[in-house]
Design brief:
Elements: H1 3-17, E1 22-25, H2 27-33, E2 42-45, H3 49-55, E3 59-63, E4 68-73, E5 76-82, E6 84-85, E7 99-100, H4 104-109, E8 119-120, E9 126-127, H5 132-137, E10 140-141, H6 147-153, H7 156-168, E11 171-172, H8 174-183, H9 192-204, H10 208-217, H11 231-239, H12 247-258, H13 262-271, H14 276-292, H15 299-305, H16 307-319, H17 326-334, H18 348-355, H19 361-376, H20 383-397
Parallel strand pairs: 2-5, 10-11
Antiparallel strand pairs: 1-2, 1-8, 3-4, 4-5, 6-7, 8-9
The structure holds adenosine-5'-triphosphate (ATP) and magnesium ion.
Amino acid sequence: FDHQFKQALPIIDKIEEAGFEAYFVGGSVRDTLLNKPINDVDIATSAKPNEIKEIFPKTIDVGIEHGTVMVLWKDASYEITTFRTESTYQDFRRPDTVEFVRSLKEDLKRRDFTINALAMDRDGKIIDYFNGQKDLENNLIKAVGIPEERFFEDALRMMRGVRFVSQLNFSMDSETEAAIHKNHPLLEKIAVERIQVEFVKLLLGSGRKQGLELFIRTNLFYYCPGLKDSKKELEEFAKLDCVIENRIVAWVLLIHYLNKTSDDVELFLRAWKCSKKEINQVKLAMIALEHRLKNNFNRQILYQTGLQVSLDVETVMECLGYPIDFETVHKLYQELPIYSKNDMKIDGNDLQVVLNRKPGKWLGDLMTEIEATILSGELPNEKPIIVEWVSTHYTKDA
Ligand code: ATP
Ligand code: MG
């Protein structure tokens, strides 16, 4: 029994003492059987949300309309979801309303893949109505029930399927694959944000090659932002043989293979609904990569890119098969005289006083020039010296 399950046992016991059923379900059961570390422990129960709230003193309503209550218990939190079916599907998306049921089997039946439709009771006994354990042994992603129906109910499951192929390094059952191939246009109905979550997990998985090949073979890529016309490039990208360690590295490698210009990068990532912060990081990384493919890192590029993203760029270089040197990046970065404008020992007010001039465009330009000169090492970052430099230098230019 994993430590996290042990910690959650009192929760199951309390629900059972109140006269209801409760089981561990979903990813945690699957990952335990695979001897993998588990993320979060999810619990399914025959108790309704209000019944759960009566049992536990501390709860948070995280998705009560879907039957999910979060229970806070000894520094940890658990999502407890009432057994449910999703009988009325519309628009190929998960329904807004759900129907609560009292049977575990009904609940497991509406889950996406057999390996995700396993439950475990408080004694560690596995409940397996859909041969999930056999598929786990055979490393197989197989839809619960009739694949096509399941993808009609919720088209996101097609992306989840290829994601699990990559994440678990599994293969896909042929009938399940055929159903995705046939119904791939249904993906168009799904919110990009939800597709992105699965796509990024696909890119970060250890079986990325298999996952991407399946993603291409089933034509799922066709309904993902900015990929429609890039089958050839995606195929090349799929051949790449390295573990991708984070989201920035993933996007940069993908964009590199797609041959996007720096103008395209923003549009591409916006279409994928990436956050502003992530878009900025990837843009900086692309500029740094372009430089890095021709030269080593220098102070300016490092300063502009920041340490973390620079290291990501170095990781990208490694994936692309170039010789790399993380230590030099660290060392160069440590030697930078400043890390941002805030570190400069002079500010706009000082400059206005020194030059006795009203603020204007000149001020920003001058700050930028001083910044670059400090960065290059030509000007020490000390106020009197900067003032001296400005008074001689600036009058000359003006
Ligand atoms: P991860 O380790 O990435 O969290 P997971 O299997 O726990 O994987 P979740 O998205 O956390 O994935 O979902 C938890 C469980 O809920 C799944 O194991 C599956 O049983 C069920 N589930 C999630 N999304 C769907 C879906 N779109 N259709 C059907 N069942 C789903
Ligand atoms: Mg999970």
